[in-house]
Amino acid sequence: MPHVERGMSVGLFGGSFNPPHRGHELVAEIALRRLGLDQLWWMVTPGNPLKSHSELASLEDRVAMSRALAPGPRVKVTAFEAAHGLRYTAETLAFVKARNPGIRFVWIMGADNLRSFHHWQDWRTIAETFPIAVIDRPGSTLAYLSSKMAKTYTHARVDEDDAATLASLNAPAWTFIHGPRSSLSSTAIRGERAAAGTPVS
Q: Which Gene3D superfamilies match (predicted)?
């Protein structure tokens, strides 16, 4: 895991990043700025348990592509989940929390993931481990009203004008951040490259 100092605010941004693209970069930039983070960990996962791995580029390639795209020195690209055999986000958050006392973490995800968040393994545990920042994505803006997670934790929602306070709050606490959106998606990019006979990496 990246080096941190006690008292830091750190965003955790996980995904398969297959491949990483400008939309991921934009989420990272918005999170750093709006949440007032000291660092953002861009966590490249071995694979998403809810998705097929048939088109998954190697972890090494996805890490390299993510490092090439990461916006600035405060973004730390890491793949520690693979080294420790972590498969599910709830496991990862418990692992991170146990090894980093005194660090204020925020889980960061795109709004497209909010719609299906209740299908994730131990999703309530995730929501009650670290505060969550949901960054707007095209076609998913209303997820903050309609998703099961949003309805279950409506009492814990923080106004986005107060997003900079999120890292100091105890979970459950979450906010939905509007802002610039990119229409890019890894699925679409893979489809375009497959049609052109170009490898993902």
A: HUPs
Are 9 and 37 in contact, with CB atoms under 8 Å apart?
A: yes
Whether residue 53 contacts residue 16, with contact meaning beta carbons closer than 8 Å, is answered with no
- Which H or E element spans position 182? none
201 is a domain residue: no
Per-residue pLDDT for 189 more than 50?
Answer: no
Residue 4 lies in a domain: no
Q: Which two tokens stand for residue 39?
A: 């660092």
Q: Under 8 Å CB-to-CB from 162, ≥6 apart: which residues?
A: 175
55 within a domain of the structure (yes/no): yes
For residue 197, give the DSSP letter: T
Overall domain count for the chain: 1
Q: Hey, what are 56's tokens?
A: 């998954």
pLDDT above 80: residue 49: no
Phi, psi of 12 (to 5 degrees): -110, 115
DSSP state of 121: T
Q: Output the domain CATH number for residue 33.
A: 3.40.50.620
Q: Is residue 117 part of a domain?
A: yes
Domain with 21 in it: 9-196
